[in-house]
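Quick one: structure for this chain?
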Amino acid sequence: MKIERLGQDKIRIFLTFDDLLERGIQKDDMWREIPKVHELFSEMMDQAYSELGFDANGPLAVEVIAMPAQGMVVIVTRGKVNVSSNGRMDEDEADEEMYEMEVTLESSDTIMYSFRDFEDVISAAKQLKASGLTEEGKLYSYHGRWIIAFDTASTDAGVQNAMIAVLAEYGDATSVTSAVLDEYGKVIMPADAVRELCLHFS
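Got it. Here's what it folds into:
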């Protein structure tokens, strides 16, 4: 489990599938109201408090994004607690506010891997093309790393798993979402990155 602060009232938690399995949670369980998921959320909030001083009191917006290769990205945004004119919360309001949570669940079809070295990106691209898995992809530069993203909405599960196996050999699954990359990353190759890499770095 990896936690990072995105802003004063916002954190991102990255859970790998191994993190979920260790706790006896299947990917599909995240969509159900079960005690294990509540325990996991409590554990995440405890860790966020101890590592970042992020206090989860008050209304929370929780966005859970399931990604095919990476695991789960959980974005928690803390809302503002209403304070009465005397500077304190009303008793009734305090009880209500503490546990008010709005959860959004999404599933992403994007496979994203991060690479430290450009040579590793080239090697992964060559193997993906040689295996006949894909010639597509979008290549970004983000915080000193190379990130390649594939939209696999129309790709069959077997091909997805084979792509993940190749990418995992050279890089690491990343918790960065497409929205963050589009806003803060630099697009190096907007389309057909595998084909372009193989063409220019043969």
